[in-house]
């Protein structure tokens, strides 16, 4: 979920190169919420704000459905300029290297599955 076209394309390529399948890419909350009505991804990579506003409803939905998410934002987790629901996700500041994003995704998936994630700190 990214509203900047260049960043969205770069992320999509980066994630595909890392071996992930991309189910969908959204630049608006409305489109993403509509898609989530019938779909349940393994994980979501999201910016906290899209073209039509902040993604609080989406983060709340993901949290309620126990779908892990990675917040990929120029804002920092401890900035205080965002809704606390986003702290339920794993934060990766923009710009991020492919390995940072990949490690965050793997760690988020492992935590969601109740696995030991101590390896992720070493991988960074």
Q: Topology of this structure?
A:
Layout: H1 5-17, H2 29-36, E1 44-46, E2 49-50, E3 53-54, H3 56-64, E4 69-73, E5 90-93, H4 98-112, H5 118-123
Parallel strand pairs: 1-4, 4-5
Antiparallel strand pairs: 2-3
Q: Your description of this structure?
A:
The radius of gyration is 14 Å and the shape is globular. Residues 119-124 have low confidence and may be disordered. A hairpin with a 2-residue loop joins strand 2 (49-50) and strand 3. It has helices spanning 5-17, 29-36, 56-64, 98-112, 118-123; strands at 44-46, 49-50, 53-54, 69-73, 90-93. The chain is 41% helix and 13% strand. The protein contains 5 helices and 5 strands, in the order ααβββαββαα. The strands form 2 sheets. A 3-stranded parallel beta sheet has the order 1-4-5, with helices on both faces. The chain has a two-stranded antiparallel ribbon with strand order 2-3. The longest helix has 15 residues, at 98-112.
Return the string of H and E elements. HHEEEHEEHH
- The geometry reads as globular
Main beta-sheet annotation: 3 strands, parallel
Structural class: alpha/beta
Mean pLDDT: 88
Q: How many DSSP H or I helices?
A: 5
Radius of gyration: 14 Å
Could you give the order of strands across the largest sheet? 1-4-5
Strand content: 5-15%
Q: Span between N and C termini? A: 23 Å
> Which consecutive residue ranges, at least 5 long each, have pLDDT under 50?
119-124
What is the total tally of β strands? 5
């Amino acid at each position: 979920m990214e509203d900047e076209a260049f960043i969205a394309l770069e992320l999509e390529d980066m994630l595909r190169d890392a071996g992930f399948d991309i189910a969908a890419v959204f630049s608006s909350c409305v489109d993403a919420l509509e898609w989530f009505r019938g779909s349940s991804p393994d994980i979501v990579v999201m910016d906290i704000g899209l073209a039509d506003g902040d993604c609080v409803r989406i983060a709340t939905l993901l949290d309620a459905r126990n779908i892990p998410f990675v917040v990929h934002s120029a804002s920092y987790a401890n900035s205080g300029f965002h809704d606390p629901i986003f702290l339920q996700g794993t934060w990766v500041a923009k710009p991020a290297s492919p390995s940072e994003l990949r490690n965050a995704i793997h760690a988020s998936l492992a935590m969601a599955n109740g696995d030991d994630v101590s390896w992720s700190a070493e991988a960074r």
